[in-house]
Design a protein that fits this description.
The chain is of the alpha+beta class and about 750 residues long. About 45% of the residues lie in helices and about 20% in strands. The chain folds into five domains: about 1-235 and about 320-325, no CATH class; about 235-270 and about 270-315, Calcium-transporting ATPase, cytoplasmic transduction domain A (Distorted Sandwich); about 340-410 and about 670-755, no CATH class; about 415-440 and about 565-665, HAD superfamily/HAD-like (Rossmann fold); about 445-560, Calcium-transporting ATPase, cytoplasmic domain N. The chain contains 24 helices and 26 strands. The longest helix is centred in the C-terminal third of the chain and has 36 residues, at about 670-705. It starts with a strand and ends in a 27-residue tail after the last helix.
């Protein structure tokens, strides 16, 4: 267990890497045990990241925390590489557990482990336990064949030796607040079998138990491989220019401001901006975008993408701990720690299931002999088998295994989902709401018409408007500035710049108050607009019209148009085919919104201020869950109000941190992919629950009828756990829905490593 420390407020937040977790019951055991340690609070455990975080107050001792976890059967292991930096974007006392990326594999809290991350499964502590128990059982069989009369005693001794490590951990778990663990059930069943003379079978059951755990270990390691593959995309070294010389340094040593050279065929080792060179860059490893994109001076590039054509010089803009890949890995790990509603229900249900099952087991042992004269040994044997069948491990892992695989599959295709709750809700959505500018449209409008009033020329009109828009990042503002630059107009300095959300921007330009706003805002201010017919015609053509006023006098009109994205029609059609309705929520005017919505085949709610968008979202939620798609910046309130907010991201920090999900490739088709992935994940969850419950019910009936015994009972637990994990792993090979749609280029399956 390697420890990471961070000072925080009234306590000291410490984070450890814990090897050996493979199911939510492991998380619950550790959290419950560590929470009982004096001076420790805010305990959080991340299963997929294999991390534990706790805030230590007065009297809190990290050594005691480590010993407590070790007593549960989780061995310590050093980190193979520096942990990813903890996100500082929001205060989360226990989210630090989710910020560290090393991965590994293991099982339950049942083994004396020293599994270093990446260790081969046959060299793990769990595997060594299997080899030891197999040798012990083989020796018992050999001894029993040589000394037939003493065979029961030989098998009893072998069973007691085999159950010792399990019993030690059962006691530790009971002291730590987990008395109804699989270890407890296993010990009771094995010892009970020895008492009733089934020692031979009990020894085999203990061995099968260890083998089942080893198989779960392997399956859990595979489940983590999706996240681990993301981190492995990063090149180990970078060619950096320093002090006039070119040298090769570790990629994680790059600092913002460094300039690196990226040769054709190399992976880009950082987030950065091209300073020299023109090349095609394959971003599919990060975003899932199938075609290379052109990148030249001034263009941003993302870490782990591949330079395919020519040498590039790139200036580093983010440290290794905060580049796109690191943020994605961190957020996916955080997402796997977020419990979906179904998962929370099953975990709560399992806390009552196990003691209830133990009570049923006692009734099976007592009722038939006492009430119906049944044979005591027969019904005690069957009651012990019921104990093993009752373990809820397979049921508990059925949901998070599917969710983790779904989240990893999405990340491989540029679909970043920040939690199981979001993944579950997306698939149940009834309505998808879209922002217009930058979402349904390309977000790069251009000025199409310049209509000055008499006494004003085009240059003067543009000069005044550009003066107001200087410094604004709004797409319409950039279009005005681009139009002025294209005509060689010198933009004047402005002061006292202000914005009226959804209505206008104002500034003092060359000594006079200039307002650039919507026609409706001008009317609200009592400004008489004489060219209403022009405004109507321009808006009917799908253009956005702004009025430029100087000292409350109209200087003229500017018309701008932002074309829909190429795949917008296909995306909306795909959503309709999936049974969802689409609606555009825009602050633009009714005519412009209707013109674009008509071409896309969707509803429109236009002329909405930010607070009105919120009301529309609430109204849509009355029908069912709503997914809101926006650019992750201006639409933050609407994204937060929706059942699930999805940001069009491109990998930017804002997109990754704002909403519940992000489309890294900025394709609207990703919305339908998100919904299809969610539905596939929910279907997988149902299959897993059916496997976990169905197999136990079948074996429960056969056990009560005397058809199956302890051997099959233990397989009902470990076997079902392995089955549901393997079924969940199928999601890692999930493919999006667009390969079958006409006119749409298929997204590559090999978006990260291996098949998605």
């Amino acid at each position: 267990m390697s420890e990471l420390v961070e000072r925080e407020g009234a306590g000291e937040t410490r984070s450890w890497r814990v090897s050996g977790m493979d199911c939510p019951s492991c998380v619950a055991k550790i959290e419950r045990a560590v929470s009982r340690v004096a001076g420790v609070r805010d305990v959080s455990v991340n299963l997929m990241a294999e991390t534990l975080t706790a805030r230590l107050g007065t009297g809190g001792d990290p050594a005691i925390v480590a010993r407590t976890v070790a007593a549960l059967g989780y061995e310590t292991a050093p980190l193979e590489r520096p942990a990813l930096a903890v996100s500082r974007t929001h205060d989360h006392a226990h989210d630090h557990a989710h910020a560290h990326a090393p991965t590994g594999g293991h099982v339950h809290a049942h083994g004396d482990e020293d599994d270093a991350a990446g260790a081969s499964w046959w060299r793990t502590g769990k595997a060594r336990l299997v080899w030891l128990l197999a040798g012990l059982v083989a020796a018992a069989w050999l001894g029993a064949s040589l000394f037939v009369a003493q065979a029961p005693w030989i098998f009893a001794a072998a069973t007691l030796l085999a159950v010792l490590p399990i019993g030690r951990r059962a006691l530790a778990l009971a002291r730590a607040g987990s008395p109804f663990s699989i270890e407890t059930l296993m010990c009771v069943a094995a010892l009970g079998a020895v008492v009733i003379g089934a020692a031979e079978e009990a020894a085999i059951v203990v061995l099968l138990f260890a083998i089942g755990e080893l198989l779960e270990n392997v399956a859990a390691g595979r489940a983590r491989a999706g996240i681990k593959a993301l981190g492995s995309l990063m090149p180990r070294t970078a060619r950096v220019e320093r002090d006039g010389a070119l040298s090769e340094v570790p990629a994680d040593a790059l600092r913002p401001g460094d300039v690196v050279q990226v040769r054709p065929g190399d992976r880009i080792p950082c987030d950065g901006v091209v300073v020299e060179g023109l090349s095609a860059v394959d971003e599919s490893p990060v975003t899932g975008e199938s075609m290379p994109v052109s990148r030249g001076p001034g263009d941003a590039v993302v870490a782990a993408s591949v330079n395919t054509a020519a040498l590039l010089r790139v200036r580093v803009t983010a440290a290794a701990s905060d580049n796109t890949i690191s943020r994605i890995v961190r957020l996916v790990e955080e997402a796997t720690a977020s419990r979906a509603p179904t998962q929370r229900f099953i975990e709560k249900f399992s806390t009552y299931w196990t003691p209830g099952a133990m009570a049923v087991s006692v009734l099976v042992m007592l009722v038939p002999p006492l009430a119906f004269g049944g044979d005591w040994w027969t019904w005690i044997y069957r009651g012990l088998a019921v104990l093993l069948i009752a373990c809820p491990c397979a049921l508990v892992i059925s949901v998070p295994a599917a969710m983790a695989s779904g989240l990893s599959a999405g990340a491989r295709r540029g679909l970043l989902i920040k939690g199981g709750a979001a993944l579950e809700t997306i698939g149940r959505a009834r309505t998808v709401a879209f922002d217009k500018t930058g979402t349904l449209t390309a977000g790069k409008p251009r000025v199409t018409d310049i209509l000055p009033m008499p006494g004003t020329d085009e240059a003067a009109l543009l000069r005044a408007a550009a003066g107001v828009e200087v410094g604004s990042a709004h797409p319409l503002a950039r279009a005005v500035l681009d139009a002025a630059a294209a005509r060689g107009i010198q933009v004047p300095a402005a002061t006292d710049a202000e914005g009226i959300p959804g209505k206008a921007a104002t500034a003092i330009v060359e000594g006079r108050l200039v307002v650039v706003g919507s026609p409706s805002h001008a009317r609200e201010q009592g400004i008489l607009l004489r060219n209403v017919d022009n405004i109507t015609a321009l808006e009917a053509a799908g253009k956005t019209v702004v009025v430029v006023l100087a000292v409350r006098q109209p200087l003229g009109l500017l018309a701008l148009r932002d074309e829909p994205r190429e795949d917008a029609v296909i995306a909306v059609a795909a959503l309709k085919a999936m049974g969802l309705s689409s609606v555009m929520l825009t602050g633009d005017n009714e005519r412009t919104g209707r013109a674009i919505a008509l071409g896309l085949g969707m509803e429109v709610r236009a002329h909405l201020l930010p607070e009105q968008k919120l009301r529309e979202i609430e109204a849509l939620k009355a029908r069912g869950p709503v997914v809101m798609i926006g650019d992750g910046i201006n639409d933050a309130p609407a994204l937060a109000a929706a059942s699930v907010g999805v940001a069009m991201g491109g990998g930017t920090a804002v997109a990754l941190e704002t909403a519940d999900a992000a489309l890294l490739h900025e394709r609207l088709s990703g919305v339908a992919e998100l919904i299809a992935l969610s539905r596939a994940t929910l279907a997988n969850v149902k299959q897993n629950v059916a496997i976990a419950v169905g197999l136990k019910l079948v074996l429960l009936v056969t056990t009560m009828l005397g058809v199956t015994g302890l051997w099959m009972a233990i397989l009902a637990d470990t076997g079902a756990t392995v089955l549901v994990t393997i079924n969940a792993l199928r999601l890692l090979r999930w493919h999006g829905p667009f390969a079958r749609l006409p006119g749409k280029r298929a997204v590559p399956a090999d978006s990260v490593t291996g098949n998605a």
